[in-house]
Amino acid sequence: MKFFLDTANVEEIRELAELGLVDGITTNPSLLAKEPAPDREILEQICAIVPGPVSGEVVSTDAAGMVREGRELAKIAPNIVVKCPLIAEGLKAVRTLKEDGIRVNVTLCFSVPQAIFAAKAGAYIVSPFVGRLDDIGTDGMSLIRDIRQVYQNYDFETQILVASIRGPLHVIEAARIGADIATIPGKVYKALLKHPLTDIGLERFLEDHRKAQKVGAAV
Ligand code: G3P
Fold first, then answer.
1. Three-state DSSP class for 3?
2. Class of 2-193 per CATH?
3. Which of 41, 90, 154, 187, by CA, is between 20 and 30 Å from 19?
4. What ligand 1 atom has the least distance to the C-alpha of 107?
5. Between β-strands 104-109 and 2-6, what pairing exists: parallel, antiparallel or unpaired?
6. Residues 82, 27: contact at Cβ < 8 Å?
7. Measured torsion, CA atoms of residues 191, 169, 87, 114, in degrees rounded to the nearest 10
8. Measured in angstroms, how far is the CA atom of residue 206 from the centroid of ligand 1?
């Protein structure tokens, strides 16, 4: 399973990428709007830090505009993946960009039929938003389960990227289902690595080692 970071904050990306376990990045217009630097500059910096796929989103709502923007975004770096919204015009843009050899992440997916359309259009990635479905009282993860099943039924190659993750349980469930990618906010990414029993256990081991004070115990 691939772990992407869902952020446009370069410092946060730099810090977490040091671990060597960040497989890619997703940004969107809202995340980029939080950062002071121009969007293109931010995406350039991110692409230089993380060698994996880096999603940058178009803001046009017509296919021609999306294709134009997508082509510009793709010039930033070879690891750019263009994000297009899951609307009819977005699906048209997927086809054209794919013909250009540009990978597309189809975003804002909230239903199984939408996910099928994205796969049929040739999306490299589809991004169902689990947290936003949970927010309106529906079960976001059941959408991931259904898409996994349907994609398996028809051997669709589009990767399922679980987006709008709110906490570690979303990631655990996504892994159980067999989603290809989880895109994770920095805070949740850090929480995934931590366990209080690991910290307590380590403290105890070190304390016991200190107390024993054996010569040559540390190797
Ligand atoms: O990258 C898209 C997605 O992860 C957005 O999440 O928290 O705004 O619903 P959120």
1. strand
2. alpha beta
3. 41
4. 2
5. unpaired
6. no
7. 150
8. 40
How is the chain split into domains, by residue range?
2-193
What pLDDT is attached to residue 218? 60
Which pLDDT score is estimated for 215? 63
How confident is residue 85, by pLDDT bands cut at 50, 70 and 90? Answer: very high
Nearest to 129 by CA among 154, 104, 147: 147
For residue 208, the CA-to-ligand 1 centroid distance in Å is 45
Q: How far, in Å, is the centroid of ligand 1 from the Cα of 209? A: 45
2 catalytic per annotation: no
Residue 94 to residue 71: CA distance in whole angstroms: 11
Residue 28 Cα: closest atom of ligand 1: 1
Query: Tens of pLDDT along 111-144?
Result: 999 999 999 999 999 999 999 999 999 999 999 9
Q: What is the pLDDT of residues 179-189, one digit of tens each?
A: 999 999 999 99
Q: How far is CA 79 from CA 47, 49, 56, 128, in A?
A: 7, 11, 10, 21
Instruction: Specify the pairing of strand 181-184 against strand 2-6.
Output: parallel
Counting from 1 in the atom list of ligand 1, the atom nearest the Cα of 163 is 4
Q: Identify the residues whose C-beta falls under 6 Å from ligand 1.
A: 6, 26, 28, 129, 131-132, 163-164, 183
